[in-house]
Amino acid sequence: MIGFTHYLIVAGILFSIGLVGILKRKNLLMLFFSTEILLNATNIGFVAASKYYGDLTGQLAAFFIIAVAASEVAVGLGLLVLWYKRTGSINLDSLQIMRG
Description:
CATH architecture: Orthogonal Bundle
Largest sheet: none
CATH class: Mainly Alpha
Oligomer: single chain
């Protein structure tokens, strides 16, 4: 039987993987993937808590997180494509040449 703690353990593992990915990666695309893993880990936690307590609030919060993540991906990938066309690289180190 899969219980509430199992879901929280999976969410914690996914959150840790996403956090390590954000801290260690230099590639912007991998940074976006790591952010998505973080957001999906919180979604698992919210939905599991919602199911455990019999309340729809966690599922509603997860729905809004999914909407924010979709808009983040759309805007972020658009900027990423623009940056790749300009510099030919999606490395974080290439952002040092930005001038304003």
